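Blinded run. Sample ID left blank on purpose so nobody reads anything into the name before looking at the predicted structure. Input follows.
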Amino acid sequence: MSFVRKVTLDGPNRTILGALMADARTSLRTLADKVGLSAPAVRERIRQMEEAGVIQGYAADVSWAALGYGLQAIVRIEPLPGKLREVERTLQDMPQIVQCDGVTGDDCFIARVVLRDVADLDVVLDPLHVLARTSTAVIKKATIPLRAPPYPDS
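Blinded prediction complete.
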């Protein structure tokens, strides 16, 4: 059994997390300058946060529009009785769905879909109509892009 050390989210760690969320490719030197520590000290803090599961990975921020997907939509999905697992398998097989969460309430799933145009919405929704009720909202803009929540007091 491995034991994970708790990491204190002090000011420097919060600054490091914020900078890495904004740009995961930020150099250690830049991070060190931001927090007033040496690059090796910043590397150690990052390693500790990785080991504690605070930092779970690093990702590229991809522009769907640059890839030809001019629209995004949120689709709320309420499976018909007895169709939950079939809906889940169907959603997993749809490459247009770039993110999907299982949620509480009447809807069991909320999916983020990328589309080349409005007609592409039929490609996503048609297979679901025999399995679930759906409600779709086209995304106009990211009012609040992905950001860190308030950090708990350490």
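Unblinding after everyone has recorded impressions. The CA atoms of residues 14 and 151 lie 8 Å apart.
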